[in-house]
Amino acid sequence: MPEAHDTPTEGADGSPEARWLAGDVQHHLHPFTDPEDLRRRAPRMIVRGEGVRIWDARGHEMLDAMSGLWCVNLGYGRADLVEAAREQMQRLPYYNTFFQTTTQPAAELATELAAIAPAGMRQVFFTESGSSANDTMVRMVRRYWDLMGQPRRKMLISRRNAYHGSTLAAASLGGIVAADAKLTHLPK
Ligand SMILES: Cc1ncc(COP(=O)(O)O)c(C=O)c1O
User: Fold this and answer.
1) How far is the C-alpha of 133 from the C-alpha of 164, rounded, in Å?
2) H-run or E-run covering 110
3) Assigned domain for 114 exists
4) pLDDT digits 0-9 by tens, 3-50
5) Could you tell me the residue range of the domain that residue 164 belongs to?
6) Running DSSP on this structure, what letter comes out for residue 109?
7) Percent of the chain with pLDDT over 70
8) Domains in the chain: how many in total?
9) Distance 97 CA to ligand 1 centre (A)
10) Potential cystine with 181: which of 42, 54, 169, 172 (Cβ 3.0-4.6 Å)?
11) Residue 94: alpha-carbon gap to chain centroid
12) If residue 82 lies in a helix (H) or strand (E), which one and from where to where?
C-alpha cells in the first residue's frame, strides 16, 4: 500500500492537491483507517494509472503491486474498456433486473460466465462487491436448506482470521477482530 505523505494538509498552499486533501481529511471517512492518524498525516492522492503503474498528485510513479484492491486485473488506461463503458453509458447507463426485466450486458455476461464456470454452475447472480457477494451467498444457502426441509442447517465453516468482506454477514464469517460483525451484532 502506498505510504501516506508526511506533510500535514493544514496550512494549505492553495494548490488543487492541498484543497482536495483538506476536503478529504475533513469529509471522507476511509475504510480500515484510523481517522485520527489520517488527520495527522495526509493521505497520498492517486491521480492516474496506466498498465501496472499509478501516479500520485505529486508526480511520483509507483508499481501498483496491489492492483487497486486486488481488482484491477486488466490494468489501468485500457482504451477498449473506456470505449465499451462510454458506449454503454450513452445507450443505457443503468437498469435493474428486478421484476422480470433484464439488459443486454447482464444477459451476455451471465451466458459467458456460465460457459467458463466449472461443471454444474449454470447461473450467475450479480452483486457490486465481494462483501455483498458473500452476504448473498449466506442468504442463498440458508434459503436453499429451508426449501429442502432442513431449516436447522445454518452453520457456516470458515478459516480463522480469513477475510470475506466488511458487510455484516461477510465480516462475521472471518474472525478478523477489526472487521468482526459481532462488534455490531444486530438484535433479533
Ligand atoms: C477473499 C475476499 N473475500 C471478500 C472480499 C471483499 O470484497 P469487497 O472489498 O469487494 O467487498 C475481499 C476483498 O479484499 C477478499 O479478498
Assistant:
1) 9
2) helix 104-116
3) yes
4) 444 444 444 577 888 889 999 999 999 988 999 998 888 899 999 999
5) 104-184
6) H
7) 87
8) 1
9) 24
10) 172
11) 19
12) helix 79-91
Q: Whose CA is nearest to atom 15 of ligand 1?
A: 164
- For residue 131, which atom of ligand 1 is closest to its CA? 11
Is 168 part of a structural domain of the chain?
Answer: yes
Instruction: Say if 24 falls within a structural domain.
Output: no
Indicate which atom in ligand 1 lies nearest the CA of residue 130. 7
Q: CB of 164 closer than 6 A to ligand 1?
A: yes
Sign of the C-alpha dihedral computed for residues 16, 17, 18 and 19 taken in this order: positive
Cell numbers at residue 14, please? 492553495
Q: Tell me the DSSP string of 146-176.
A: HHTT-TT-------TTB---SSHHHHHHHB-
Let me know if residue 34 belongs to a domain: no
Q: What is the pTM of this model?
A: 0.80
Q: Is 61 helix (H, G, I), strand (E, B) or coil?
A: strand
- Share the mean pLDDT of the chain: 88
